[in-house]
Amino acid sequence: MFLANELKKTPESLRRYQQKNYYDGKWRPAYQELLEPHIGQLKHPDYPRVAMNNALTYNPIFSEPIVNDLPQLTVPLTLIIGTRDRTGPGRAFKKPGVTYKLGQYQVLGKKVADTLQKGTLIELDGLGHMPQFEDWTRFKAAFIPLFNQ
User: Fold this and answer.
1) Read out DSSP for 64-113?
2) In a 3-state reduction of DSSP, which class is residue 119?
3) What global pTM score does this model have?
4) pLDDT tens-place string over residues 21-50
5) Residue 37 CB contacts under 8 Å (≥ 6 apart), including other chains
6) Given 3-state DSSP classes, what are the helix, strand and coil percentages for the chain, each rounded to the nearest 5?
């Protein structure tokens, strides 16, 4: 199922996915640069191998979610999230009748941060899955100081 979905991807489907989930329906021409490596992979004769590797990444997402391991970490951990991020792996596989929404990072970020022993949550309001590209200045202001701690 995951492999079949990977093999069906097109440049346009990649753009639509990112626009909807990464950028909350918004799109800027500058985001196209971020798609070019993925589009190049789609066009390459070895894409079926890449698609298989992409499909294999779903197994740990569903069977070994990292959020279960984060509370065990004793080192400082900072999460930087965009509150508009709507990525939700598995959204297409929800059973009929399931009504909860996936990809609500403005809620999920707080839930995960509350489980951390030495955690800090930095929320970048109004930014999505790729805050470093949407607004480098705001992302940099949150990110760079972490190296001076």
Assistant:
1) S-GGGTGGG--S-EEEEEETT----TTGGGPPTT--PPS--HHHHHHHHH
2) strand
3) 0.78
4) 888 888 999 999 999 999 999 999 999 999
5) none
6) 60, 10, 35
